[in-house]
Design a protein that fits this description.
Elements (H helix, E strand, L loop, with lengths): L8 H9 L9 E4 L2 H11 L8 E3 L2 E4 L2 H6 L2 H21 L1 H17 L12 H25 L6
Parallel strand pairs: 1-3
Antiparallel strand pairs: 2-3
């Protein structure tokens, strides 16, 4: 899959079919040089991220990883990251970064998984909860799109 900077139209359409619309200002970068460079920085702190949001942009560093996901999984990943975009907007960059870093350090000190849905980073818990509620709806919507038209 080549580097992409367009907004992942198939994923947006599936989200819309499930009743979810991503913010129109959301940017998505898949496999861009900037996405890979930022991921390299994050990798110095933790495991390589599958995706991350900075401001209103979602970065997906590895296009091969993204391509291996099913359409519902890709849409759920974008929805998860869109929660972080909304958090950036709601909290502002300094407060978002402070809360994320504070919780990250707390979970690491306690030996917890930073993405644990119950004890991990609070901002991640919010995004994970949304993603886990949404994925079954996306799978149903994707199945409905693949289903043959009803017989007349």
């Amino acid at each position: 899959m080549p580097s992409l900077t367009e907004p992942c139209q198939a994923e947006r359409e599936l989200l819309k079919a499930a009743g979810v619309s991503l913010p129109p200002t959301l940017r998505v970068e898949v496999g861009t040089r900037r996405a890979r460079a930022l991921a390299w920085i994050f990798t110095r702190l933790d495991a390589p991220p599958a995706a991350f949001a900075l401001g209103r942009t979602v970065f997906i560093p590895d296009p091969a990883y993204f391509a291996r996901l099913t359409l519902p999984q890709r849409a759920a990943l974008l929805a998860h990251e869109s929660v972080h975009v909304a958090q950036w907007q709601r909290l502002g960059a300094p407060r978002f970064l402070w809360q994320y870093l504070r919780d990250y350090l707390r979970t690491r000190r306690q030996g917890l998984d930073t993405h644990d849905p119950h004890q991990g980073i609070a901002l991640e818990r919010e995004a994970l909860a949304y993603e886990s509620r949404l994925l079954p709806l996306l799978e149903v919507a994707a199945g409905a799109e693949d289903a043959p038209p009803p017989a007349a």
